[in-house]
Amino acid sequence: MLYLLPLALFASALSASSDALSTKMTKNLKVLVSSNDFPESGLEVLKEHFTVLQSRYLHFGEEGVRENKEELLNLIPGCSALLWSSHHPISKELLDKAGPQLKIVSTASAGYNHANVPELKARGIKLSNTPNVLSSAVAEIAVALILGAARRFTENLEQVKSGQWDIGFTKTLGQDIRGSTVGIIGLGGIGQATVKRLSGFEVGKFLYTGHREKPEAKALNAEFTSLDNLLNQSDFVVLAVPLTDETNRMINSTTLGKMKKNAILINVGRGDLVDQDALYDALKNKQIYAAGLDVTTPEPLPKDNKLLTLPNLFVLPHIGSATVRTRSDMAVLAAENIVNALTGKPLLTPVLP
Ligand SMILES: *[C@@H]1O[C@H](CO)[C@@H](O)[C@H](O)[C@H]1NC(C)=O
Ligand SMILES: *[C@@H]1O[C@H](CO)[C@@H](O)[C@H](O)[C@H]1NC(C)=O
Fold first, then answer.
1. Atom of ligand 2 nearest to the CA of 251
2. Which of 226, 228, 246, 254 is the best mutation target for the ligand 2 pocket, counting ligand atoms within 8 Å of the beta carbon and taking the most?
3. Could you give all domains of the chain from N- to C-terminal order, each with its CATH number?
4. Which of 46, 125, 203, 302 has the most CB atoms at less than 10 Å from its CB?
């Protein structure tokens, strides 16, 4: 057996030197990071292998996106990879400017409705996202929204700010999670993580709907049903589906009309899953009890938007995955997808492999 040792040493030396060689060979490849705020952990992974270009501007907010646009168009020619760290559409113009060596777009998000999938596919460009690593953080926000909407945080925080507390045995009463029926639209990673987190709240029944039954549902005690049944039985309706042509405005005047009068709508997916005018009417007329949204259309939601006049709406500024650890995990995964794409390895989390 001893003779194997030198062979093993030789093999490991060879693989170390081939790693060094491949790093040397990839160093001239350029990778563009779309925003000036991106976790260091992700940048480090990229810098180890590639030449990293990074926008000097923030890729968020109206001004940031405008300043960024020119900058990205100037930086992208010759880049082999694009790391996208926001939810803004990736324009055809940007892809045109890139040139044929662009191999991958890696978006640091679970949703990828901002990436034009048919366009990328037609150009032979790979696409990756960052699912799973953000499920628990987003599920925590789903629970926060459930509590915030059910216990009337918007009104209650207003009372604290104004000093006019409306305290009384029957004043500003909310709703219990205990004993309720919770309906999850989209029992993927985020939907499942939400059920797990809520299971300590003595929920009466979990329902879910989607294209097909999920094998994971059994262990979660979640029952598969139609959208119509879920809507008319649930006390909490949680939207955790990706935005697609099919799910666009799936919560509209018709579907809101099927919900219970005490129902609470939660959205941790994308703003366009909900017809906001119809939601405004349903909340204003108390056709449903309340809503909690982490996502809106547009983002930011202008402060004079009529939704923000509703006491029974609890809104957060799209912070689902916004924790130190989760954003770092997303950044590293997004970076590793680029490393794999440019070194001939399979993507870790492919959308277009
Ligand atoms: C809910 O909707 C389904 C499908 O339309 C219907 O069969 C069922 O009777 C409804 N249940 C309730 C409680 O309204
Ligand atoms: C409302 O959403 C349902 C379910 O997604 C859909 O079938 C229906 O066409 C939509 N209705 C309107 C008025 O958009």
1. 2
2. 254
3. 4-132+325-352 (3.40.50.720), 135-315 (3.40.50.720)
4. 46
